[in-house]
């Protein structure tokens, strides 16, 4: 079988993948982008080639910035393969992917993983009820379909995306019953020590304040210090009420849709399956692959750029994609070390400015304990329906890590392959054992990293 | 049958509109909508029941991570709705618990085409009369 070989294979067409492709093609590299989505943009610039909403004020200028990346990518000489689900990467950089139900293989001289972020799991009693969605899901529905959630609508959680989607829905004329902010008391004080560094990215800070002012002026009920979320079903088993605690008082509100959010975390499924070295980020409370300043991982030739290498946002992903692509071009002999440093100086400065604000945001919006280590009754593994109490019970019986609880309970063995329970299970075990999360570890992720039919695997034998 | 309050559509850029069938009911959606978005437009909630307890679920993340939007699309079970662009005439129904394996998936012709010897088949039959 003749396998096509590329200088650079990029997985993901978000800001990191798009900018890396444009930069690398300027050096004449043979490039392919394998994108899970049907069009470029990733999640942040989703549907940017064909935005659904007519009124561009709703999503705002930051979203349409994605058009500049799209234009650069279109002018670049890049093979773009949308709808490609990468399911295995071997150590010699042979990549197996499925497209329109058929599998094929390509080979890379250098691999760039730009698979972005996913929303942090937000476990609380009732989070599996139909009607509970993530804030990211609501934003995707806005961007790609112009759809808005059924009322009455409540938003609950913590973080910049919660405020952004609230403002966007408000601009779209959607009535929001309440925004319930679960940021724990004292976080503003705790994050203050990171404020001087954050001032290096003043434009973003000002934007954040602007969002808060916009929401305040909108007259939407904004409740601070909310805790103990509990979603309750109606007679039809759909979400009908949200119960929560504020200032030690229990309140209940009717709602049809509840949008939740507790920040985003790197999508580590592929980097884990490749057994790259990972490290625990205490401030961001998540795992990320260990990378050098050019984005190269513990395995030579495999690079990671954008949020899949650690959360820093869309602009940082764009600059990191550029830096990484220049480094790859240099390793492939397209430019020398001196011109590499010269050509990456500007992107490096811009990246530094974007990264400067992160510790402030990360300290401010670190999830409350109840979402990191949920109550016993809470389902942590949505696929296999395993509760936090069951995980605690297994620790009491001697389980020391997530791979053991997985073997005993199937937590992490369903179709999502641990994406929605991995962090929670590890954190519960660490908490029970009173050891750091990094000592507990993570699920052993194995290929295929997406469910496949036997037929799709058999394709490769032909 | 669709029973939940549906998601609403804002004024969108001009595009083609297509018809999909949600549990047999025609629903008009925008070309480019995913099958999971179509389910939310129709108000089909829950859109699946779980394998373990049979409890109801509906689309949750819309970005291919959570697998809560598994649907039966054009007769194929366990399809990730949010990763599947809807197309005109598509038949979408809820996924009921685990995928059903049909006996026809393992017909005798499949076995003979897999080049199994008759002896093996006979031996197997002797071991287990239900085969």
UniProtKB/TrEMBL annotation, chain A:
CDD domains: GlpA-like_Fer2_BFD-like. Residues 6-321 form the FAD/NAD(P)-binding domain. One of its GO terms (molecular function) is oxidoreductase activity. Keywords: Oxidoreductase. Residues 379-458 form the SoxA A3 domain. This is NADPH-dependent 2,4-dienoyl-CoA reductase, sulfur reductase. It comes from Neptunomonas antarctica.
Automatic annotation (TrEMBL), chain B:
It comes from the Bacteria. Keywords: Oxidoreductase. It holds the Pfam family Fer2_4. Residues 109-120 have a biased composition (Low complexity). Residues 121-131 have a biased composition (Basic and acidic residues). Residues 103-131 are annotated as: Disordered. One of its GO terms (molecular function) is iron-sulfur cluster binding. The keyword Heme does not apply. This is 2Fe-2S iron-sulfur cluster binding domain-containing protein. It comes from Neptunomonas antarctica. The lineage of its organism: Bacteria, Pseudomonadati, Pseudomonadota, Gammaproteobacteria, Oceanospirillales.
């Amino acid at each position: 079988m003749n396998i096509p070989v590329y200088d650079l294979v990029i997985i993901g067409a978000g800001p990191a993948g798009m900018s890396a492709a444009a930069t690398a093609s300027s050096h004449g590299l043979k490039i392919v982008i394998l994108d899970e989505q049907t069009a470029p943009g990733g999640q942040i610039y989703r549907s940017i080639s064909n935005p659904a909403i007519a009124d561009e004020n709703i999503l705002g200028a930051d979203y349409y910035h994605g058009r500049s990346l799209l234009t650069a990518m279109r002018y670049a000489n890049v093979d773009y393969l949308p709808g490609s689900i990468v399911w295995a990467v071997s150590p010699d950089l042979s990549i197996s992917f499925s497209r329109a139900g058929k599998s094929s293989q390509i080979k890379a001289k250098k691999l760039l993983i730009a698979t972005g972020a996913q929303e942090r799991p937000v476990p609380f009693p009732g989070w599996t009820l139909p009607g509970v969605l993530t804030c990211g899901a609501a934003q995707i529905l806005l961007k790609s379909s112009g759809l808005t959630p059924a009322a009455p609508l409540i938003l609950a959680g913590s973080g910049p995306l919660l405020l952004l989607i609230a403002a966007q829905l408000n601009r779209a004329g959607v009535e929001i019953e309440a925004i319930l902010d679960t940021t724990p008391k004292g976080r503003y004080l705790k994050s203050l020590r990171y404020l001087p560094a954050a001032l290096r990215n003043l434009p973003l800070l000002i934007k954040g304040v602007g969002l808060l002012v916009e929401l305040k002026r909108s007259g939407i009920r904004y409740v601070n210090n909310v805790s103990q979320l509990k979603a309750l079903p109606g007679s039809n088993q759909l979400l009908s009420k949200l119960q929560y605690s504020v200032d030690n008082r229990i309140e209940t509100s009717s709602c049809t849709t509840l949008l939740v959010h507790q920040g985003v975390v790197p999508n580590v499924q592929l980097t884990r399956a490749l057994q790259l070295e990972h490290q625990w980020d205490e401030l961001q409370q998540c795992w990320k692959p260990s990378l050098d300043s050019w984005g190269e991982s513990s395995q030579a030739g495999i690079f990671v750029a954008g949020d899949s290498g650690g959360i820093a946002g869309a602009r940082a992903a764009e600059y990191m994609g550029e830096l990484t692509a220049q480094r790859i071009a240099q390793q492939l002999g397209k430019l020398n070390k001196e011109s590499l440093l010269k050509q990456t100086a500007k992107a490096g400065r811009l990246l530094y400015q974007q990264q400067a604000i992160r510790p402030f945001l990360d300290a401010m919006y670190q999830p409350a304990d109840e979402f990191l280590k949920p109550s016993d009754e809470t389902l942590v593994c949505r696929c296999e329906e395993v509760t936090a109490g069951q995980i605690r019970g297994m620790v009491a019986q001697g389980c020391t890590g997530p791979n053991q609880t997985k073997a005993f309970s199937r937590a992490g063995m369903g179709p999502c392959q641990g994406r929605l329970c991995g962090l929670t299970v590890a954190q519960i075990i660490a908490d029970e054992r009173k050891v750091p999360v990094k000592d507990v570890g993570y699920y052993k992720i194995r290929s295929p990293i997406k469910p496949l039919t036997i037929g799709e695997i058999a394709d490769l034998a032909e | 049958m669709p029973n939940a309050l549906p998601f609403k559509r804002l004024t969108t850029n001009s595009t083609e509109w297509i018809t999909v069938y949600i549990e047999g009911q025609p629903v008009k959606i925008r070309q480019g909508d995913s099958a999971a978005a179509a389910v939310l437009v129709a108000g089909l909630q829950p859109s699946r029941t779980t394998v373990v307890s049979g409890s109801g679920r509906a689309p949750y993340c819309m970005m291919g991570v959570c697998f809560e939007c598994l649907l039966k699309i054009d007769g194929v079970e366990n399809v990730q709705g949010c990763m599947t662009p809807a197309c005109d005439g598509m038949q979408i129904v809820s996924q009921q618990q685990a995928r059903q394996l049909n006996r026809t998936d393992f017909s005798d012709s499949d076995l003979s085409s897999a080049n199994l010897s008759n002896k093996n088949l006979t031996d197997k039959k002797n071991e287990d009369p239900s085969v």
